[in-house]
Design brief:
Layout lengths: L5 H21 L7 H9 L5 H35 L11 H15 L5 H23 L8 H25 L3 H8 L8 H20 L1 H9 L1 H6 L4 H23 L5 H13 L3 H25 L8 H18 L7
Helix pairs in contact: 1-3, 1-13, 2-3, 3-8, 3-9, 3-11, 3-12, 3-13, 4-5, 4-6, 4-7, 4-11, 5-6, 5-11, 6-7, 8-11, 9-13, 12-13, 13-14
Length: 331
Amino acid sequence: MKSTPFVFKLIAASFAFVAMFFIAMVLGAADTTIKDVWHALTSNTTSKQISIIRELRLPREIAAIFVGAALATAGAIMQGITRNPLADPGLLGLTSGANAALAITIAFIPSANYFSIMIACFIGAAIGGCLVFGIGAMKKGGFSPFRIVLAGAAVSTFLHAIAEGIGIYFKISKDVSMWTAGGIIGTSWSQLQVIVPFISIGILISLLLSRQLTILSLSEEVAVGLGQKTTQIKTILFIVIILLAGASVALVGNMTFIGLMVPHVVRAIVGTDYRFIIPMSAIVGATFMLFADTLGRTINAPYETPVAAIVAMIGLPFFLFIVHKGGKAFS
């Protein structure tokens, strides 16, 4: 597999992504066909089925694409920076921090618009990440993979409890749970207009810094020896992670395991060069999120299974397998 040229792997992943997109657009509680999807995307004709596709399914699946790409890219960057195979925005406090900030914003600034909520999520993600890495670095020899994961679990639980407590005290549990269920139900075009540019910028910056990330992932000493400004690069990449994780939580709520699973699978396909890992992670993450959302919509139609539950059911066994293998299962 690794001897195949990267361009062929990228083309194959792109074909799988396009196929999954059309499957996601066709399947659902309402009966639609490939022809309906094609007309909805390429013509001005209208019908009940085409309206459902344009106004409900299309924004929802675009949200799934960008969230999947964002979380997978953020996970790949985190694993590269920390050289920790268990790093994931959901496991290391970023999405829980964004989630807690979201609850605080809804409680104290009920009139906050979508942009304000997103900024709050960025700040919350930064605080959550800083808490985890701060606790992980307190003891000598900090930043071991398992110590970071333990710190992440503790901080995530604490921040989740804050979000739940605020929801109960201020009687906004229903509003908060609409986000924390990890659903992309009811995603609107106006929400996408706010979120998509931030995610796009984050992925673009990560692509531009992918070469530096590859060197960082090998060794800090090697990076310094090659003249890299490691502090500046790490700072920029950490900001990118916050952008990607915060924007994702603002759109779909707390989502774990995508950033852990996808980079591991991608490394098995393309190797350890982040110039290949980042773009492939974005495509595979988007494809996986489309798959999870389609499964959530169809497994018990016309009722919906939360996409976060689908991702967790797939992700938890994967996480345990990675831990059992000491993080080297797909290396």
